[in-house]
Amino acid sequence: MAKVARYIMCLMGLLLPSLGHAEDGSQLWLRYAKVTADEAVLRKIHCPFTDPVARTATEELQNYWHKGNVDLLLDKKWDTQADGYRIRSMGGKTVISAGTSAGLLYGAFHLLRLQQLGGNLQGLDLTEKPSYALRMLNHWDNLDGTVERGYAGHSLWKWDELPAVISPRYREYARANASIGINAVVLNNVNASPLILRDDYLEKVKALADSFRPYGIRVFLSINFSAPALLGKLENSDPLNPAVLRWWKDKTSEIYQQIPDFGGFLVKANSEGQPGPQDYGRTHADGANMLAAALRPYSGLVLWRAFVYNPSAEDRAKQAYQEFVPLDGQFDDNVILQVKNGPIDFQPREPYNPLFGAMPQTSQMVEFQITQEYLGFSNHLVFLAPLFKETLDAQTYAQAHASTVAGLTQQGPHPPMSAIAGVANIGQDRNWCGHHFAQANWYAFGRLAWDSSLSSDSLAREWLSATFSPDPALVTTLSQLMIDSREAVVNYMMPLGLHHIFAFEHHYGPEPWGDIPGGRPDWMPWYYHNADSLGIGFDRTPSGSNAVAQYHSPIREQFANISSCPEKYLLWFHHVPWTYRMKNGQSLWDNLCYTYQHGVDQTRHFQQVWDSLEEKVDIQRFGEVRSKLKIQTRDAVWWRDACLLYFQTFSKMPIPVTLERPIHDLDELKKIKLELKHHN
Ligand code: BDP
């Protein structure tokens, strides 16, 4: 009887938020109640396989599954390349079957999620197969422990202690990734130090790979294209120099001797000052294929970034397409072109990158930024699933079928190879991501990489139930807040297609006036907003840069025509008169004012909503989120005032009297210079 009572209490524990004690967010969404010794004897987890990944699957269920017997089976009928699985209720027990141990692990985490969310566990019969084969985080972590664009403390990787000291957080990190289906990580910054390939660093990399392996995670490295010269002391790093190829082959073989399941190289070449094949008059394909040849014997991959642009007279938004489309068909089949979601750079809103669907013979993958470089760092609550979905679901009209960005990247020319990457927002902070709600972006990225058809709403609900509490009132209220948060940040930072009007270098806060005499025009806000006495926006129609021509019909015509261009992209594609009539009848200027104000109102509303839930959230996280929401609202007002007061110097039109008055002066705002570091 006592046993049963304890069992029931324990089950209740699964459902109740832990209001009594402070939570610091360190458990992420994995706040499972542990199985007690008494419970453990009531059920059996059976798995005949003993490889490390299958063992992890078994242990997870042994530790956290409260509800009866589970059998884990490897089933030859399953595709042994993929990570899919089936979960069935059979004869009083639950059976997870898969073609690989990794599939069993993902099945185990699925079952635990069902239990955690209070789902029906009777009569189960569900089958899952991932949308992408490679579901990957990119860390922009430097060897000195800093993180480029990282807002959650220093790097998790303690290079100075490795390989001797293995922090327990390595496994916790790997476990969290596995629980949402992430199976690959790039450890270091795309602005890569050549030292990562030095023998002593490779030993450290091996130690990390060993920690991650039981969770089905493979390690990749960002490489510096000049490593043969810088590290190997060769005369040059020309990809057509046989000595260079030899160097890469030897280096690759050395890596695979230590890390047999090593994934491959991520390369930022000839971009923002990084070295690359063009330094020797070679093409991106020459460079990528040279590395592909070194990796081929081990089935390793080259992830070659398409984020390439130069300070030229050409519209920056057009440059990657111009650079890469002529190379279609020239990349080896173990090369994937890694393409940022939009044509500029992780802005609060961009139309999809026209490279998607423009290179039918080249494998392409999407790169998202999970870390909030352009979205208020870890101070602003911005749920990114709607942003990710906007790109993935974008219809490119490139082919008759499979023409969304998701479809094109999932069914490329070299099946079954498919991949997706997110730039991680993880650091040494206790709560991993700096802002408790930033954890939701890590979560949503992983879950969408697994199943790109999931809705933002269901992801928000899942994450909230697991991370805070399954209380329906909390979940309903906060999921709405999360969904709205992406549009809010667009509204108070850069509505109607405005982009890149951030403060220089660190990208926190507004600086639409920003100008550095002699600086690169394509790094200056005026380059993007083009405000003048007539209007505002970047003319990318045939009368301007004609970037619209890079899109397929009928998107091209839709974007090019000011009356059919979605208003959310209006100033991305058009230079629009201040007096232009928007669809709601307002002038562009008035509409801009209303939209900025709406963004501010939304953040104030988020504060109210959060405060209304005080009783339902544990003390520490409640207080921490509340403080961050204050900063977010102050920043929203700052953005509104800075942008409207500055643009008003061109429009010469009044801020509609029904709206709040600015509380800052433009001169005062122009003086703000934040001492925020940007680590390159
Ligand atoms: C930009 C970042 C810069 C990165 C670059 C990249 O500002 O720090 O190195 O992207 O993706 O967004 O390579």
Any overview of this molecule?
The structure is a single chain. With 680 residues, this protein is of the alpha/beta class. It has three domains: 20-128, 2-Layer Sandwich (Chitobiase, domain 2); 134-454, Alpha-Beta Barrel (TIM Barrel); 490-538 and 575-670, Alpha-glucuronidase, C-terminal domain (Alpha-d-glucuronidase, C-terminal Domain, Alpha-Beta Complex). Helix content is 37%, strand content 10%. It contains 21 helices and 15 strands. A hairpin with a 2-residue loop joins strand 3 and strand 4 (93-98). Helix 13 crosses helix 14 (456-467) and helix 19 (588-612) packs antiparallel against helix 20. The longest helix is centred in the last third of the chain and has 33 residues, at 619-651. Residues 148-149, 190-191, 268, 272, 307, 345-346, 373 line the site of beta-D-glucopyranuronic acid.
Summarize the structure.
With 680 residues, the chain is α/β, with parallel strands linked by helices. Helices cover 37% and strands 10% of the residues. The site of beta-D-glucopyranuronic acid (BDP) has 10 residues, from loops.
Write out key terms for the chains shown:
disordered N terminus; binds beta-D-glucopyranuronic acid; TIM Barrel; Alpha-d-glucuronidase, C-terminal Domain; 8-stranded parallel barrel; 680 residues; alpha/beta; 3 domains
